Amino acid sequence: MTDHEGPCHELVADCRLRAATDLLTHTWDPVVLAALRPGPRRRRELRVAIGGISDKVLTDALRRLLSNGLVDRQARAEAPPRVDYSLTRLGQSLVEGPMAALGRWATEHGDELLEAQENAPRRAPDPAVPPPGTRRVG
Predict the structure, then answer these.
(1) 56 CB-contact burial (10 Å; exposed 0-12 / middle 13-18 / buried 19+)
(2) SS3 sequence, the chain?
(3) pLDDT tens-digit series, residues 90-119
């Protein structure tokens, strides 16, 4: 980034970089995007293609992806009704650009990453940080 792009280097809430990286923070969203890469699919086809995703989680992911303009929902007047989901131009650019680059990086460096995670020293909990689900008194 350059200086004329504003305070994005601080990753403030309205930063474009932060908005873009937020697209990958939900575990299933990139998986759903990748499953739509070959073309439009119905919900059932998406669940089969992905495997291991609940209907609720798929619904939540599709809603987020629709609201971010990455996925399109096409309802067809058929009996029974048919709804297809597909990538928008924006979604296609994310899948074929940054996600493809991340996939290449993971293929090239995935073993190193997993090894580093396995060999990371196990640290004792920080007494200044309360365990999840507890309240700090004082």
Answers:
(1) exposed
(2) CCHHHCHHHHCCCCCHHHHHHHCCCCCCHHHHHHHHCCCCECHHHHHHHHCCCCHHHHHHHHHHHHHCCCEEEEEECCCCCEEEEEECHHHHHHHHHHHHHHHHHHHHHHHHHHHHHHHCCCCCCCCCCCCCCCCCCC
(3) 999 999 999 999 999 999 999 999 999 999
CA distance 87 to 138: 50
Residue 131: exposed, middle, or buried by beta-carbon count in 10 A (0-12, 13-18, 19+)?
exposed
Cα–Cα distance, 102 to 90 (Å, whole number): 17
Is residue 86 within 8 A of residue 71, CB to CB? The reply is yes
pTM of the full structure: 0.74
Q: What are the tokens at 85?
A: 């989901």
| Parallel, antiparallel or unpaired: strands 82-87 and 71-76 | antiparallel
Tell me which residues of the chain have a pLDDT lower than 70: 1-14, 123-125, 131-138
Contacts of 20 by beta carbon, 8 Å cutoff, 6+ apart? 98
